[in-house]
Amino acid sequence: MAKLLPITYFPCKDLRKKSKKVVDFKSKEFQQLILDMDKTMQEKDGLGLAAPQIGKNINMVVINTSDGSIVLINPKIMRKSWKKESAEEGCLSLPDIYGMVNRHKIIRVTAFDKQGKKIKFIAEDLFARVIQHEIDHLRGVLFIDKAKEITKGKDKLEEMKKNDYC
Ligand SMILES: [Zn+2]
């Protein structure tokens, strides 16, 4: 059974750590974590969820797509389009805060699936944006670091900066 995991909120320091590579794909704990992260993302209505957002600093993200959710383990962006696009983004670790972020329009990604099989694909538009956002989490980068403008929740962001959620 998958269970709901508590979300780590900004400005918790776990969100700023660099995540480690996954080496043991086969463990029961890891397979359970994938199920739990997926359930948490679905329940919270997120487009994606990175492991640091549930307090685990490992290179793993789950992404919500129109064809269901996918898990990307040790993901890497191999190529990025020169063309970028700006759009509004939010984050489950920064609820009710939104900002305009410039992202590459098309990216080529390699990763491992939950069985440890290597996968390669091209992502465009919103799918590419979500992957870039989630991979940033694995390096301790948040969308507010890149946002040109905070469009909603500016006051809330200032309030959150004073807190310590860890
Ligand atoms: Zn996020």
Helices and strands in order:
Elements: H1 28-43, E1 48-50, E2 60-65, E3 68-80, E4 84-91, E5 94-104, E6 106-112, E7 118-124, H2 125-138, H3 143-146, E8 149-152, H4 154-161
Antiparallel strand pairs: 1-2, 2-3, 3-6, 4-5, 5-8, 6-7
Bound molecules: zinc ion.
Zinc ion binds at residues 91, 93, 133, 137.
N-C termini distance: 27 Å
**Uncertain runs with pLDDT below 50, 5 residues or more?**
none
Number of helices: 4
| Count of extended strands | 8
Top-tier CATH class: Alpha Beta
CATH homologous group name: Peptide deformylase
* Small molecules (ligands, ions, cofactors) in the structure: zinc ion
Helix content: 25-40%
CATH fold node name: Peptide Deformylase
What structural category do the secondary elements indicate? Answer: alpha+beta
Q: What count of structural domains? A: 1
Largest sheet: 5 strands, antiparallel
CATH architecture: Alpha-Beta Complex
Cα-atom radius of gyration: 15 Å
Strands in their spatial order, largest beta sheet: 1-2-3-6-7
Order of helices and strands: HEEEEEEEHHEH
Give the overall shape. globular
